[in-house]
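Q: Sequence in, structure out?
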Amino acid sequence: MSVPKSVALPGGAQIPAVGCGTWTVWQAAPGAVRDAIKAAIAEGYRHVDCAWVYGNEQEVGEAIEAKIKDGTVARSDLFITTKLWDTAHRRGAVTEQLKKALARLRLDYVDLYLIHWPTSFKEGDIDFPKDDNDKHIFEFHDIQDTWKGMEDAKDAGLTKNIGISNFNSKQVQRVIDGARIKPCNIQIEVNPLFSNARLIDFCQERELTVTAYAPFGSPNRPWKKSDDPVLFEQPILKDIAAAKGKSPAQVCLRFLLQRGLVVIPKSVTPSRLKENFQLYDFELSEAEMKQMFSLNRDHRVYGQEITLDHPEYPFSIPF
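A: Exactly. Output:
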């Protein structure tokens, strides 16, 4: 099964199917994100994913500027995604934060702007505001009003496309119901251990493209439990990888590409950046795809644990 190297957004733009993620790369040394993005662009990546709360937009911007200046790419060759943080869900605050993000990125516009989470924190300069009891401080902002702020940002030319991230089906539908400009993309956790099939189907039926983050199940996450399944240790995956002469990571990414998803693996290691981009010289058979689907455990590793403090918890659910 052949897969395209880009996925068409409803408005006609093309999003490169393999992007370079930057979440958890913040754990690396200063300058590591900048160097990784420079290496990724040199390797052929044209899609870079970042976010306000990752704290890495400055280094991403420095890398982009350097690769444009040295002639490797033009701005129009790149697809840059960033995300609105929870402290800027007031309608007017949406464009305010995006303008600050663009200054960090040294760009006039981003190609895709996403609402990072459906939750809203107290507005201000502190990304995770807490009270005297160490509880997160929430504010109420109707997500439809926040979405109007996203539409304002697109109207102003600050972003070419707008979308959402970490929304469940009810939240997705609420945005759609109140939208003048419908979201074109949703970024959610997807990997062989967490197929997220119901939500993917729901979104694709409503013409949202889907970007899969944590495509390897985030094996280095600090909160991993001793009895959590480890994706790369699954015999089915190891057997398919051996038969193909590919790494387990490459098989995982190819599996997601053949599901019609965009993938954003992350690494600061040049050899892994290269490996994660070499996905188009092999394919998985129908039988192998079924084997990969059989790995699903509905094992979600990312959840906004701060929602445990929210008075309406549990409102943040996978579907």
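The CA atoms of residues 39 and 235 lie 32 Å apart.
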